[in-house]
Write a structure and sequence with these properties.
The protein is an alpha/beta fold and about 220 residues long. It has seven helices and 13 strands.
Amino acid sequence: MRQTIFGMALVGAMSVATAHAGDPCGDGNLMASTKLRSETLYLEWIGRIRNQMAEKIETEFKKVKGQTKDVLLNLSSCGGDVRELERVAAVLRRIKETHRLATMVDRGAICGSACVPVFLQGQRRRAALTSSWFFHETTSSTGEENSNVTVDRAKTEALFQDYYLTAGVSESWLNRLRVRIQHANYWQTGENLWSDKSGIITDPIDNLETRGTEEPRY
């Protein structure tokens, strides 16, 4: 049975970067760069949580493990496979044994379904107020074409316990989510999550971004 949940000093390091163009529902691709002066490994994953995401993150981390102190994972993903999510989380937990881990969802980016537990691995979790998020129950299928898809509420609850509550997500917010996702996808913006005090985002990225092209006026 195949289970999927798909759907449709760090402050300076986290002021990084506009996301590269890519398909958040595509196969998934990892881009990596290292800023040795700031001792930071920057990772950006665009696409579904599959395609050996865990292995690729671990490979890039091992290359610079002794030269870095911080890891920043920028995400844009509409979800993916439960088993790969669990492997990715295991890799990120090992990284946190020796390094500081931050996660990020940039302006206009999406983090849905399996992406959310990955995002929750960050010790600091930065997300734009204009980012898009969605949640739904875990489903199971045989993986064959035209096979029946069934809701797996026990697995959904296990994910809530293992990833949401352990990351400090509000239990009262999670109780409301449980009701809303029955037989439905539930969409939120980063601003919704922040204003509702969900606990998913620890550091919001504001809507205003200075271009730096104008001379200051006094």
